[in-house]
Each structure stands twice: as C-alpha cells, then as structure tokens.
Amino acid sequence: MNVARFISFWTGFCSLSLEIAWVRLYGYANSSTPQAFAYVLMVYLLGIAAGAQMGKNICLFPERRKIEGAAVIALAISAVIAVIAPWAFFYSQSFVIDDVVAPLAIFMTAASLSVLFPITHHLGTPEKSANNTLGKGQSFSRVYALNVAGAALGPLITGYVLLDYFTITQIFPFLGMVVAFVALMAWLMYGRRVGPVALGSVAFSLLLSLWVLHESRLESTALARSFALVGDRKVVASHESRHGIITIAEEGVAKLNGELFVDHGVYGGNVYDGKVNVDLERNTNGLERPLALHVLQPDAKRVLVLGLSIGSWLTIVEGFPGVETIDVVEINPGYLDLAQRYDAQKFALSDSRVNMVIDDARRWLQYHPEKKYDLILMNTTWHWRANSSMLLSQEMMQLVNRHLSTQGIVAFNATGSIDAFFTASSVFKEVRRYQNFIYGANWNPFERTLKEDNWNLLKAVTVNGKPGFRENSNTIQKFSKIPFVRLESDLKTLGREPEVITDDNMLVEYKYGRKNK
C-alpha cells in the first residue's frame, strides 16, 4: 500500500467531514442564522491555507524519516484537536471568550489536517527509479486524486449517513478516532524509523478518541443540550439527525382557574418553534391564529399542513368540523417521533384522515400539481433563519397559490416581517395580518370576521376528541376582538419601501435578517 496516497485520501475525507460537523455545531450554537455557514467556511479555508504553509516548511526537512514522523505526529495532533475543540468552544462561553475560541478551534481543526496535504504529495512523488515506474506527474496526480476523492466523499457520507447514526456529540470523537487510526496505520507502515515520539502521540490520540467516544454513548446529546438556548429551563427531550437538532424544554409553570400545568417549548435548530400546549382556554401557544382559519372558511374539506413541527397546528386543524382529509408534509422525521410523546398530538396523527409525508414541502408541491386545498397552513419559522426565503419568497407563494381551490385560503407565520406580508400581497388578491399570521386568498373571506356568529362556529372545534372550549367561556369573544390588519397599516410603521422576497435576493435572511448573529 502506498502510504502517502492512503493518508491523502483519509485526510481529505476527515477534513471535509469535520467541516460539516463544525457547520452543524456552530450553526446550532448561533440559532441557525445563515451567516454561520459562511463564517465557518471562511475560518476553515484560512486554516487550510495556514496548515498547508506549515506542511510546506516540513517538506524542507533534509531527512525523509523526519518528514514521515512529522506526518504521523500531525495526524495524532489532529485527532486530539477534533475531540477537544468543540468542548473548548462550549466551556469558553463561561469566560465570555467564545468569540475568540470558536474561530480558533475551527481554524486549528482545519490547519492540523491540511498540514498533511503538501507532505503527502512530497512523500508520494519520489524521484523516478527502477522501483518506481511512474513519473513525477503521475505520482503526484494519484496522491491528489485520492485527496479529492476523500474530500468529495466526506460531506456525502458524513452529511447524509453518519449524522443519521451519530449525534453532534458523537461525531467529533468518532472522526477523531478515524484520524487516530490513520495515524496508527501510518506509523505501522512507516516502521520504527519515525521514532518513539510519533508512537506516543498516536497512542495518546487513539486512547483519547476512544475514551471520549465511549463517554458520549452515555450522554449522546450532551453538546446539543449544552448549547441549547433555553436559559435555565430544563431540556426534557431532544432528537438529532441529518435534518437537524430538535430540543424540547420546560417553559415554566402556568396557572388557570387555580390549576397548574407545565408547558413545553419546542426548539428546532436552537430556535423557538412553538409550544406543545393545545389547550384552547390556557392558550399559551397563540392558538387563535390557526383557529381563525375555521372562521374564514368553515366549509373546508381538504387541508394541507406544510411543516408538522411538534404537531400543535395539526391538532387544532384536525378538530375542525367538516374536514375530510389533511395532508401533512414535514422534512424532519424527528418531529414525528417527538410528537408521539404527547397525547393530543398522537391522537391527531393517528386520525385516518391525516396523511403524513416526509419530504421537502416545495419539492412535494411541485411533484403534485393536481392537488387542490381549501386551507393551506404553512408552519414557517423565523424569517431571519437560514433557508427561510425558500418558504417566504414570491416563487413559493406562487407555487402555493396554484394549489388553492377557488375558495381556498393560505396562512403562514411572518414572524413580524412586513416584507413577507408585502410579498404575499403581490401574489394573492386579498391579504390580511392577524397577530403575526398572514392570510391570503383570491377572494375576500375577511368580511366574515366582522360577525360574532361566525366566531361562535369555533365552539364546535374539538381537541383530542373533546370540546375545545368550556361552556360560557369568553375566550372566543377575546379572539374575535383581535383585528385583521391591512398591509397599508403596517407599511406606515416600516420606515422604508417594502421589498418582495425572492429566491435570489433572500433579503429576509441577509439584508433584513438578524443583525446581531
């Protein structure tokens, strides 16, 4: 086996795999803002450049065995850095130096592996001799080709496979163990001539990786829970897969009519998604927003829910009288697993009228142009999150519009973005805002909200198979007093010209995104 080519392949694989892991961890720690990916990429590339320069200097050593020994030691150091760097990032928050430690950890991860890039090409391109029939160009190209192959396979295997089987807590020590194993194999293939220091480095890195990987099995979600932005609230459940990280935390104790209950908040990608509570009287979850759909269109038969989340919106819609079928499209199956923990959500998901699909909402809509719906409820996230433009753009609105029936209505959470409100108005004939929800239609259903009798239709809504409101409750009346606001009213408070969100400008993510992240 050609040692240089072997190392070249695995350093390419592990380097890009660790970059994927850092994008996941740093993005999660920074609330899934789009800038997180660009930041990790920038620092990682700087690390690669610095490491390659260091490797070039090592190649100037006069003795080949010293270069080989340096290669083994570099691999061992890289394994150690891969294991401890994420935890250094976490603990640095306690000393308020995470803005320094985080880029340094990412930089060192990249640099320690990229040291091997010039070294492997130097060692793998010997002078032509009787034992080496390949020319320099051929030898060099084979080392380079294997590095590129490893770099290409790293994101594919790690991003699509390993992150489905390992949590972010486990992926770092696992990759560290892979690097340590490559170091061990390199030491064995180079033989004793690389020296005892190299052997000691390999042994230490391998033992450290194995120990941390073993410990991570006991608390497989430790990093996710540690970085969870839930304050002092207790994380009661979490789910990790290649689709992302979901956590559920206790939201504190609430009181109504002398009764105490603990509500749970859902955080997708470390950003607040909503609450589990579907009690219409306690209403800690803004349940008047999906309920308003029944007031606007009480004759709805076919409903589409884009984004299950924990299933609270589905639970409400499932209780609308007259609904015959509900299609739910969710990209992350982790929400489906977590929703099974709660009786009301589990009841809604088991309803024979509910058809659950695990897919990308946009792709699913494009592949099913024949489907039409009376209600489309988009469970959108914060407008400033990465990839939010794919749900709030004019192109997405136009796609959704093609799936509305003649008397259909679409609703989505704009999370305070007036540009999202304005974008919807460029597609639908009638658009209103109710709380932070935007409702769009190609007819005018909003006159119905002016009559109290239409709001009383909500008395027939059920939750978990039981009446949603108590007798003589004034909750519905409170909901009816909340106004449906026209776009013109919001534009007065904007202070600038509104802009249409498109797939290309992504303005809610960057131009008008979350500035402090």
Share of helix among residues? 40-55%
Number of helices: 20
| Helix and strand composition category | alpha/beta
* Spatial extent as radius of gyration: 28 Å
Number of strands: 13
Low-confidence stretches: none
Strand order of the largest sheet: 7-6-5-8-9-11-10
Distance between the termini: 47 Å
Describe it for me?
This protein is an alpha/beta fold. The protein is built from 20 helices and 13 strands. It has helices at 3-29, 35-58, 64-92, 98-114, 116-123, 136-165, 168-190, 196-218, 222-227, 288-296, 312-318, 333-339, 343-349, 361-367, 389-392, 394-401, 418-425, 452-455, 475-480, 487-494; strands spanning 235-241, 244-256, 259-268, 271-275, 302-306, 325-330, 354-358, 373-378, 404-413, 430-434, 437-441, 462-463, 466-467. A hairpin with a 2-residue loop joins β2 and β3. The two termini are 47 Å apart.
Topology:
Layout: H1 3-29, H2 35-58, H3 64-92, H4 98-114, H5 116-123, H6 136-165, H7 168-190, H8 196-218, H9 222-227, E1 235-241, E2 244-256, E3 259-268, E4 271-275, H10 288-296, E5 302-306, H11 312-318, E6 325-330, H12 333-339, H13 343-349, E7 354-358, H14 361-367, E8 373-378, H15 389-392, H16 394-401, E9 404-413, H17 418-425, E10 430-434, E11 437-441, H18 452-455, E12 462-463, E13 466-467, H19 475-480, H20 487-494
Parallel strand pairs: 5-6, 5-8, 6-7, 8-9
Antiparallel strand pairs: 1-2, 2-3, 3-4, 9-11, 10-11, 12-13
Helix pairs in contact: 1-2, 1-4, 1-5, 1-6, 1-7, 2-4, 2-5, 3-4, 3-5, 3-7, 3-8, 5-6, 7-8, 11-13, 17-20
